[in-house]
Every structure is written in C-alpha cells, then in structure tokens.
Design brief:
By secondary structure, this protein is α/β, with parallel strands linked by helices. It has eleven helices and ten strands. The structure holds coenzyme A.
C-alpha cells in the first residue's frame, strides 16, 4: 500500500508510504487519499486527520512520470484535482507531521492544515515555475494570505527552498522538533484535538477557515491553467530532464 491509513483514539493517520520514490504521489495515491479523507469525514470514529510521510520524505510531490505521461499524451488525469477539492472541503481538523522533503503539493497542502509540525530536517520547496508549471492547491491564494505576498512569491516564483526554521519564522510551521520527537508530538496534539467537544471544534474551525467556495474556485482556476502548462513544451522538457538526471534548461531552447 502506498497510502497507509490507521485509526486510533479518534485520530485517522494517513501516511505516504512509497519511500523508494521519496513518496511521490501517483494518480492512484491521490484517489486513495481522497477516499480516506472522505471515509474519515463520515465516520464517528474519526475526529481528526493526521498526515505524515516516512523517514526523510513527507512527499516529493506529484509523480513526474504521471506528468510526463500526461504531457506526452496531451491529457491530464483529474485525480489530483479531485483530491484537492476533497482537501479543501474537509470539516475535521487536519494536522501534518513533516520530516524531510516536502516538494510541490507536499508544501502547498500544508496551507490546508490546521497544525503543522516539522522536523529539523524538513525542507519546503515549490519549484513549479522551474518545471514550466504554476502554483496549485489554491496556493496562489492561501500562501500570500498566510505568509505575505513577498515570501509566497519567493517560494512560488523564485523557487526558494525553506528549511524548517525559516518555515517556522514565516508562520506556517507551529513547532520544529528533532525527528524522533516529531510524530509523537504531532499525534499528541491530534489526540488533544480529538478530545475537544466535536461540534464546538467543527464550528470554530469553520469560522476560522471561512467558506471553502473561494478556495474551491481558485483550485479550479489554477487547475485549468495547470492542465495547459502540463501539455506545454516547456514542462515536457523539464520532466524529461528530471528523468535523464540533467538540470532543466532554463531557456527551454530544447522545448520548441
Ligand atoms: N516523481 C517521480 N519520481 C520521483 C519524484 C517525483 N516527483 N521524486 C523523486 N522520484 C524518484 C527518482 O526518480 C528516483 O527514482 P529511481 O531511484 O528509480 O531513479 C527516486 O525517487 C529517488 O529520487 P532521487 O532524485 O534519487 O533522490 P534525491 O534525494 O537525490 O532527490 C528530490 C530528492 C526530491 C530533491 C528529487 O528527487 C527531486 O527533485 N524530485 C522531483 C521533485 C519535483 O519536482 N516534484 C514535483 C513538484 S510539482
């Protein structure tokens, strides 16, 4: 299983478990994640979602083989978009425990979380532009809102990688912990939330997050542009460069 799901003490843990590929997310994994979130939303057994990866990798983002296949066939699977809609619509709190790599959606999904804990080894990187792509997961809306335009621009457009200290200072990480303390700490926070009166918690979260409509509309808008970009020569050249282990050609001379 590349997405593990466990329920205990009111906490549903979803874990990326494809360590040989740094937990890169395939179409099937998006489907499994969306199903697990939806199942947890409906179940009285679940009060809080917790998302985590494996040692050294939260996730390296969307599987670039899937992107390359989409670019080569002129199509784009809609599992990622459908997962993002689910992520933006959940009502129960979401806690993240991030160790190591958080690339692309591995970082942008954190702006849908309510508590984010990171290990000292965590890094946050959104290299969309270098891949000829665009910000997704409503990050073009949620990141400037959360960390300010300049920092969001630095991450999303300059492609600046943040370490966990910088992420903490920017305000999207609650605590930075040694790797072996990360998951117990995040779990404890999730269990603490699971012990709160559920109706009051749901209302407080809904008030703080506001209506999901704006976020869902932005996901849709970004998604349409993203699908075009995936099929662009620039993006195809960048995906091919990754699998040929060459640096992307910034001028994209080879992309025409
Ligand atoms: N999609 C598909 N495969 C991926 C992947 C991704 N996003 N990220 C890593 N992998 C695979 C590699 O191809 C490699 O597979 P192989 O062993 O069969 O060759 C394996 O995972 C290990 O990756 P590797 O690059 O050797 O590890 P690293 O520690 O040197 O570097 C990263 C890790 C994450 C920095 C690097 O793999 C990377 O830049 N990945 C792409 C990240 C990305 O652009 N994501 C999409 C954002 S929109």
């Amino acid at each position: 299983m590349t997405i593990d799901v466990e329920r205990e003490g009111g906490v549903q843990t979803l874990r990326f478990n494809r360590p040989d590929k740094k937990n890169a997310i395939t179409a099937g994994m998006y489907e499994a994640l969306a199903q697990a979130f939806e199942g947890g939303e409906w179940s009285d057994e679940v009060r809080v979602h917790l998302i985590a990866g494996t040692e050294g990798a939260f996730t390296a983002g969307n599987d670039l083989k899937d992107f390359l296949a989409a670019a080569q066939s002129g199509t784009h699977g809609d599992q990622a978009l459908s997962f993002l809609r689910t992520l933006a619509s959940i009502k129960k709190p979401l806690v993240a425990a991030v160790d190591g790599l958080a690339v692309g959606i591995g970082t942008t999904m954190l702006f849908h979380c309510d508590l984010v804990y990171a290990s000292t080894a965590a890094t946050f990187h959104t290299p969309f532009l270098d891949l000829g792509l665009l910000p997704e997961a409503a990050s073009s809306l949620l990141m400037p809102r959360s960390i300010g335009h300049q920092r969001a621009f630095e991450m999303l457009c300059l492609g600046q990688k943040y370490d966990s200290e910088r992420a903490y200072q920017a305000g999207f990480v609650n605590e930075v912990l040694p790797r072996d303390e990360l998951e117990p700490y995040a779990r404890q926070a999730a269990l603490q939330l699971a012990g709160k009166p559920p109706k009051a918690l749901a209302l407080a979260r809904a008030l703080m997050r506001g209506s999901p409509d704006e976020v869902l509309a932005r996901i849709q808008e970004e998604g349409a542009l993203f699908a075009d970009r995936i099929n662009s020569p620039e993006a195809r050249a960048a995906f091919e460069a990754f699998f040929e282990r060459r640096p992307p050609d910034p001028s994209n001379k080879g992309a025409a």
